[in-house]
Amino acid sequence: MQQTINIGTTANDNTGDTLRAAFAKINSNKALLEGKLGTDDQAIVLPGNIGKRFLDLAAADEVYEDINFPIETLNPPGIGTAASIVDSSGQSGIDVALSYTTNNTLYAVCQMPHSWVVGTTIFPHLHVQPQLATANTIAWDGWYSISDINGTFPTASTIATFNTNIPVSSQWKHLLFAIPAAGIPMAGFVGPSTIIRLKFQVNAATNPFHVIGFDVHFRWGGSPVIYAP
User: FRET pair for 114, CA 20 to 30 Å: which of 6, 16, 59, 90?
Assistant: First the structure.
């Protein structure tokens, strides 16, 4: 239980805690907080079915968060070549995924949240699930276009073809990769009304795979520095 420091009724009335007692309560409160949040560089479990969030209480330059997109929204009907939604995904049996093959396309439209540190680089990510216990190389093409509120979307910028290389017998571990590896520069955009449109297309794949997640990694605190996930 947190302890309240007794500051007395009026200044210097000698009814409050001594300095020793006050700092003992501060130390006790600090220990209680660390027990709930974790100390520096600790992964903590938050209540409910929301998994883990990494907090680094010491390094202000490592304050990042994700915008997560429901897997079913990444192939809007009638646009491009859609992937199939499947209710069971491959070797580890993850429920609900998108079964991708050559020319299938993934779309996302992301409004940067109010907590975004304006102008900092963002890192879109894909999470993929191999369907066979064999090595796999997935080649992707990508495009993005950025606009502020009341603006217009310029011609999409091209992301150079990049690969996801999956080793033999790899199931769902952490097959996450940034698109592109250096992130997407957002310098010059004025605020959280900034919107980015993203498109990715499967150029080639040696073996079948599913996409089981997509998110945009963004900076919500600290100084505007480049972060390499």
Answer: 59
